[in-house]
Amino acid sequence: MTLLIVGLVIFLGTHSISIVANEWRDQMAAKLGNGWRAVYSILSLIGFVLIIKGYAAARLEPIVLYVPPLWLHHVTAALMIFVFPLLLATYLPGRINTLFKHPMLNAVKFWAFAHLLSNGTLNDVVLFGSFLLWAVADRISIKRRPARPLNTLPATKYNDLMALVGGIALYLLTIHWLHYKLIGVVPVL
């Protein structure tokens, strides 16, 4: 569990710099340029790897906090349908992006909340709860800080369609193959 927590602190801590020290972040980014991006990316990658290793290790000795009813697995699967189109809409400017304002944060919230519904071990609550709290905090903090430009594809009338079709395709790939391949768990459908 320690490795999972350290990974979360590094990964979410790196991603929380704008929440707690936005001016400092902007100064460092201006001062270091691509060096800032490199440090940010390396720390994020280290945190992500530690999260994966820590979560895998914690799953070997689960501490059950609650046992969700089986039907919640189906609710999780239904909520997950929104995650991948929202992720893609982040980089495909269109109506979805406009409607959800911050589609990636919404995708993280859907993903985390959905998984909290159907997973009741301590490591699940720590992992998904941390991401949910971070996404809520980041969304609140965005309201008080200046918007930063995001590298996106050009706006076209097909972006929403690409986000939906691509997102549903990723969802189907995930539930039928990728989730088991990466996580070792077959989602219930």
Q: Secondary structure elements and their pairing?
A:
Layout (H helix, E strand, L loop, with lengths): L1 H14 L1 H4 L1 H11 L1 H26 L11 H10 L2 H7 L5 H6 L2 H16 L3 H21 L16 H25 L6
Helix pairs in contact: 1-4, 1-9, 3-4, 5-8, 6-8, 6-10, 8-9
Describe the 3D structure.
This protein has two domains: 61 residues; 127 residues, no CATH class. It contains ten helices and no strands. The radius of gyration is 18 Å and the shape is globular.
Determine the structural class based on helices, strands and strand pairing.
mainly alpha
Uncertain segments are: none
The main β sheet shows up as: none
Oligomer status: single chain
Secondary structure: number of strands: 0
- Using the CA coordinates, give the radius of gyration: 18 Å
Number of helices: 10
Helical content stands at: over 70%
Strand proportion, as a percent range, falls in under 5%
**Count of spatially separate domains:** 2
- Distance from N terminus to C terminus (CA atoms, Å) equals 29 Å
Secondary-structure element series: HHHHHHHHHH
Q: What is the global morphology?
A: globular
Mean pLDDT, all residues: 91
Jot down its keywords:
globular; 2 domains; 189 residues; mainly alpha
Summary?
The protein is mostly helical and 189 residues long.
